[in-house]
Amino acid sequence: FSDTGSKKEHVKITSQAKPGFLERLSETSGGMLVGLVSFLLSFYLLFTNEGRALRTAKSLDEGLSLVVPLDGIQTVSQENEGRLVHLAGALSTSKPLFDPSYGLSIHAVKLKRNVEMYQWVEYEDSKEYEENGEIKKETKYTYNTEWKSEVVNSRNFDREIGHKNPSAMAVESFTAVSPNVQVGSFVLSKGLVDKIDDFKQLSLSNLEDPHADVTRTGDYFYHSENPRRPEVGDLRVSFFYAGLSGYNPHLGSADKVTVVARQRGDQLVPYHTKSGDVLQILYPGDLSAEEVFQKEHQSNTMKTWALRAAGWLAMFVGINLMTRIIYTLVDWFPVVRDLVNVGLKAFAFCAASSLSLLTISVGWFFYRPLWALLIGLLSVVPIVIARSRVPPKKHQ
Fold it and tell me: Which parts of the chain span the membrane according to its record (predicted)?
């Protein structure tokens, strides 16, 4: 056990008998079941992702062909009732958001109070090794004091004595949202307001200390006797805002946003496309309708590739776990074990790549048959490459 200032650490060594063949076989069997679930889930993820991606792209193309740019946002025209409209303008709210506990108010769509407590945090670093026929595990526990937004339960520490944290915070975090958000004469729906989430830290330099037991240092309010040398249990509070909705002498003019949604009276609500998707889009800044839909297409592409990668990884892991039993059977022979391990990894890679491409092609078949056929042919490539690397058998 060592102690260096606010950082403490100790090492624990545990040992257990080396698992026998039947025990390892039992663990592998459980892994095969998990692998089967992951394998089947990957097919569902890959197949539905392609349909979602194509449906979203079709909805965006439909939206771009129907959207009506509004020339003015200070008046509501009944001609556009029920239509998909595009507008840009500054945010506005009816009342400021405030926190009376700290004497703070601001015209914004959202105001977040973030409370952190100075607490002990435990870190683990483990390594296993074999010694005298036993499997030993050496774990190094390190304790450090840090500011954390969530309460760290010290009861789960390996050594709670000397590292005990309070069970709750005296001040809670919260996020206040303006009940009425407008762009010009149009009221934004809850879904559009939810998209305003670009939080920026609020400077507290122009505020006074709200209470005798609270000290402002920088952009934080400290519940501490000495903010420069905090103790476990001390609190610090910071504030963040999103969507400035009025002129502020320290922050500038109200934020501008661009919205694409359906006009219903003086409200902007979700628009349902013929493809079954919902369009209610909001971006910061002043963008044209073409720029908005281009960004949405880019977002759809990124999401599609992320889910494709996740589906391939789930399939690769599933095949790895299902074929792990072969590795367990030859675990007693080091040279053979290593060769088999490399072979199984290569097999899992090729099989996952081929099956993923095949599943994607089936997903495309209902929308774009020619592309589906091309992707289906590509699914054979990993198998052909794998077979080409197998040396031909020598003739006796």
Answer: 29-47, 305-326, 371-390
Residue 118 backbone phi and psi in degrees, to 5: -75, 115
- Where do the structural domains in the chain lie, given as residue ranges? 26-57+300-389, 77-265
Pairing of strands 84-93, 68-69: parallel
| CA-to-CA dists, residue 239 to 152, 169, 211, 253, angstroms | 22, 17, 17, 19
- End-to-end Cα spacing for the chain: 68
pLDDT tens sequence across 136-186? 788 899 999 999 999 999 999 988 888 999 999 999 999 999 999 999 999
Distance (Å, rounded) from C-alpha 107 to C-alpha 93? 7
Q: How far apart are CA 84 and CA 6, in angstroms?
A: 59
Global confidence as pTM = 0.79
Helix axes 21-66, 289-322, angle to 10 degrees: 160
H-run or E-run covering 23: helix 21-66
Structure tokens at 92: 């506005």
Please, which contacts does 363-367 make with residues 24 or more away whose CB atoms are closer than 8 Å?
363/46, 363/47, 363/48, 363/49, 363/50, 363/51, 364/50, 364/54, 366/51, 367/51, 367/54
Mean per-residue pLDDT of the chain: 85
Report the 10 Å Cβ neighbour count for 244.
21
Residue in the structure block whose two tokens are 């559009």 = 192
Query: Does pLDDT of 2 surpass 50?
Result: no
Look at the block and give the residue holding tokens 């200070």: 74
